[in-house]
């Protein structure tokens, strides 16, 4: 099956007589999934500490064969359930759903609900494939849905919010999400879209309010997964890990379970637990071979373990099927760290190409391009790009990137303000990121705040001593140059 569907809806006329639309499940009340009577083994969790939860996650997953339970739903029905209930779907199922909606709309072009489903499925497929060419098709389908049904069409508004989030246009995502919420304030699937948009805009108070409302309206694995993302950004790793463990254990479809297991692997990676992270990434790929984020995760871990050849292979597989510019940046830095500058340049060129393609389809990738320019290109250009990004999306990630770019141009005082924003919870930077803390430590070192720099660099290495093949090496070298603090009256002995 090819990755890209035939867009059968592109030239569908809208002037045919109105057909009775197919009955669609409500987006905020998705159809119930059939119960599977599978043999399950459960591991009782004695603790919700990060390592215990993540280490026990794989043992919580269902295993064993079917024992003659009810027939499984068709791929299109599975994808419809996933798309309308805001959970990950498999790429093959999404393909089937898109083709089915396209055929249906060829005969029933006035079915607003099906246009909304088609658009939402194309957004999800574009995300999964990192192919921004899907987004104009998705926008056309969603706007057609609104044209056919301009009033009380919350499903299309939610689809447009999802599309805007995928394009990193968080202000537009918030606008569309709020419009959907006004129409259907109790539709729980609107709130994850608003959480993502508000996080991208750096509005952490709004994120909290939206999460509170979401958990009031709904419980279950999808809500737990969204809560985990918020908890991770607040630095509540153990809570995030517990939520993901429960979500993965409750997931029905392999693609959904794989997505939660991959996120658990990311938590393990972020705290430097290489073996636990690798187990989770490998399990995610086993569950869903199209889980490219897990393959890129394997690349990170294998590189940290010194298994460079395997790491390069894992990254290349991820990039082949999901050519995200951040993967190209990571692979380029891995090549650079092992003395292969020409191979690194190939990846950096790929990054630039992917950013250009994304921009042509309305996707904002200035954050990753700014990060690349700061370290490997033109730091002055990085500052200009990231200042504009900060004006639009003042998030924690942008604060870190802008602070680092300013440092690279010698503007250390201004850089420190942004680094503080990225690393202190009261300023919004609650996430425990070794990279962000490393950046702040290097900025403080440049300002000759040696005690603070020493503390920060040590903290970065404690959080995750493998956080970057280039950055971790530089952090160790900077600590060595700083040496031990002087032991004298009033000295900073940190």
The CATH class label of the domain at 371-482 is Mainly Alpha
How many β-strand stretches? Answer: 0
Q: For this structure, what is the CATH homologous superfamily of the domain at 371-482? A: Tetratricopeptide repeat domain
Q: Roughly what fraction of the amino acids lie in strands? A: under 5%
The end-to-end distance, rounded to whole angstroms, is: 59 Å
Sequence stretches where pLDDT stays below 50 over 5 or more residues: 1-56, 59-69
Give a short summary of the structure.
Helices cover 67% and strands 0% of the residues.
What does this structure look like?
It contains 24 helices and no strands. The chain is mostly helical and 494 residues long. Helix 16 packs antiparallel against helix 17. The N terminus is likely disordered. Among the domains are: 101 residues, no CATH class; 38 residues, no CATH class; 112 residues, Tetratricopeptide repeat domain (Serine Threonine Protein Phosphatase 5, Tetratricopeptide repeat).
Helix-strand blueprint:
Blueprint: H1 50-60, H2 75-85, H3 91-107, H4 112-129, H5 134-148, H6 154-166, H7 170-183, H8 190-200, H9 204-217, H10 221-233, H11 237-250, H12 254-270, H13 274-287, H14 292-304, H15 308-321, H16 325-337, H17 341-360, H18 366-376, H19 379-392, H20 396-408, H21 412-423, H22 434-446, H23 450-463, H24 471-482
Helix pairs in contact: 1-11, 1-12, 1-13, 2-3, 2-4, 3-4, 4-5, 4-6, 5-6, 6-7, 6-8, 7-8, 8-9, 9-10, 10-11, 11-12, 12-13, 12-14, 13-14, 14-15, 14-16, 15-16, 16-17, 18-19, 18-20, 19-20, 20-21, 20-22, 21-22, 22-23, 22-24, 23-24
């Amino acid at each position: 099956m090819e990755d890209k569907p035939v867009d059968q809806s592109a030239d569908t006329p809208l002037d045919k007589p109105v057909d009775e639309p197919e009955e669609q499940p409500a987006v905020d009340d998705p159809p119930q999934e059939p119960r599977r009577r599978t043999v399950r083994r459960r591991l009782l969790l004695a603790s919700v500490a990060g390592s215990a939860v993540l280490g026990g996650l794989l043992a919580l997953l269902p295993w064993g064969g079917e024992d003659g339970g009810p027939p499984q739903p068709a791929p299109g029905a599975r994808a419809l359930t996933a798309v309308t209930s805001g959970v990950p779907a498999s790429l093959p199922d999404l393909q089937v759903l898109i083709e089915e909606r396209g055929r249906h709309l060829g005969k029933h072009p006035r079915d607003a609900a099906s246009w909304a489903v088609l658009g939402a499925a194309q957004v999800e497929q574009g995300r999964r494939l990192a192919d921004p060419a899907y987004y104009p098709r998705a926008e056309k389908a969603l706007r057609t849905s609104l044209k056919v049904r301009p009033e009380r069409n919350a499903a299309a508004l939610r689809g447009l919010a999802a599309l805007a989030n995928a394009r990193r246009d968080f202000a537009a995502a918030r606008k569309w999400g709020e419009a959907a919420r006004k129409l259907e304030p109790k539709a729980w699937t609107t709130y994850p879209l608003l959480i993502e948009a508000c996080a991208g805009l750096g509005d952490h108070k709004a994120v909290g309010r939206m999460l509170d409302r979401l958990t009031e309206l709904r419980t279950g694995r999808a809500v737990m997964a969204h809560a985990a993302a918020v908890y991770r950004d607040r630095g509540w790793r153990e809570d995030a890990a517990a939520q993901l463990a429960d979500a993965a254990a409750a997931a029905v479809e392999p693609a959904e379970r794989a997505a939660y297991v991959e996120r658990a692997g990311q938590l393990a990676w972020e705290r430097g637990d290489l073996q636990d992270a690798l187990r989770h990434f490998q399990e995610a790929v086993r569950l869903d071979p199209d889980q490219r984020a897990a393959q890129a995760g394997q690349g990170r871990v294998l590189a940290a373990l010194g298994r460079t050849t395997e790491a390069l292979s894992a990254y290349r597989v991820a990039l082949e099927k999901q050519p995200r510019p951040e993967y190209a940046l990571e692979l380029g830095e891995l090549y650079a760290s092992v003395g292969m500058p020409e191979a690194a340049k190939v990846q950096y060129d790929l990054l630039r190409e992917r950013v250009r393609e994304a921009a042509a389809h309305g996707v904002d990738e200035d954050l990753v391009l700014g990060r690349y320019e700061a370290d490997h290109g033109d730091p002055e250009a990085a500052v200009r790009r990231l200042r504009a990004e900060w004006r639009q999306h003042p998030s924690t990630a942008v604060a870190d990137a802008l602070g680092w770019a300013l440092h690279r141009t010698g503007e250390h005082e201004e850089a420190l303000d942004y680094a503080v924003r990225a690393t202190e919870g009261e300023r919004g930077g609650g996430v425990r990121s070794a990279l962000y803390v490393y950046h702040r430590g290097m900025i403080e070192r440049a300002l000759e705040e040696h005690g603070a720099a020493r503390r920060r660099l040590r903290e970065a290495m404690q959080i995750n001593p493998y956080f970057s093949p280039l950055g971790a090496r530089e952090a160790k070298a900077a600590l060595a140059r700083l040496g031990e603090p002087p032991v004298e009256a009033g000295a900073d002995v940190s």
